[in-house]
Sequence to fold (470 residues):
Amino acid sequence: MCLDGVRKHKISLKNLTNSEKIPHSVLFVNGEIGEKCSRNSLSITLNSEYRENCPVSQINSEFKCLLELSVGVNKLTLNYCDIELSIDLNHVVSDNPKTVTPLYIVAKDHDGTFQARERNSPENACARITLGIRMIQMIFAEKLRAPDGSGRKTFNLSGDCQPFHSDLSIEEACGMTESQLWSFFARELIDRMPDCQNRKFVAFIGCTRYHGSKDADYSYESIRAATVANAALASGGLALLGSGTLFSWPERLCDVRVYLEDETCVPLDELMDDSGYRRTFGGCFATSLGSLLHEMGHIFDLAHCDEGIMGSNCDRLDQMFTLKDFHTKYGSLPKRKVPTGREWGAKCTVVRRPGGNVGAFSKMSHSGGVYFTENFLILLANHKWFNESTGLQLDAGLVFNAKTREICGKYPLKLVEMRNVSGLVERYWIISTSMDTNNVYFTFPPHIQLIKCTIFCIDVFGNTLNLTFN
Ligand SMILES: [Zn+2]
Ligand SMILES: [Zn+2]
Fold:
């Protein structure tokens, strides 16, 4: 019985439904309490053992919490005042043979420590990277989830993060540019790791060092210039990142929220600040986890867009997982520069859309300030790393006919993108599936000029066609 009298509380979950199949181990619980009362305390229990007293936001009655799922059926129970809500969640690990392998690169003559005041061994690094990548695995699934619980797709991990002992020396690493580092490690991984056609790597460089910016403003550019063996670069099978902000990352899931909300100031002459100018430990964690998400987008063939995670909005992962009103405090963060080849502000153009799920996906995905634009959601939903193999995709026969300007293939096409020379999506077409089209799935409208651009398209089995026009 509610002490406040005849209140009728209601617990509602925004992102989970009963019996939902969950392919990732990190569970994000997000919901709302209808009709709060003075006791205002919510307890969340997973499998009657893990109990979290979860704060409920005073402003909009929202709650958020992160828990670790066990393989198989998990019972999630929420108790608020005199009511209880209980649902079953089925954590099923995907058997997709295409996986992502997280690595921590240790240079040849290096002890493997990363830059931090304490707890900076390779073991600490691997624990942080493992947690970070499991968070990212969950974020992709959350963004692809439709309101009915379907479509929760994400990549499969080959395992936890392991150290990778490189033949590159510290001195060599410190003298290399970002793209030289990427090329070196990509080569080394292909030479030394098995089954590379079915793996994508996410690797952090352990010997990244920040030497203190000479610029008293500590601009992002000057901080980057004062950092060696650093990278935030991805394409093909490798996303390469520096370890400069690992000092701000937690090692346990239960610490994620506290770390995101940590407003301790970064000592700017000692540690690398990459926080979207918030200058806090929490800001560094949010921004660097966001750039991991962005770079992983690239290994799944996503290009740049003017907005969202693949644009300038990858600093705000904290908004997705905390209840703090960061926005009032910091306002809109300055935009990160993403090479576009033209000015900011132009929008991607949608010429054709089928309606239905796509609109819902897109709307869902905007919640929490962290989102992928709809073209990227379609791309990911059909990507081979996000779908268990069907065996059908071997010869997709995807071809472009220059005379008729048609794209033909054996299987229905889902998305066609037109990317400019800098890799920014300028136009895209979402294609409604139709089986009876004589294998012609798309014809470029007459006003579209196919010069100085790249055409990217993906079919229903994740087969892609990438064509560049000069
Ligand atoms: Zn009550
Ligand atoms: Zn990028």
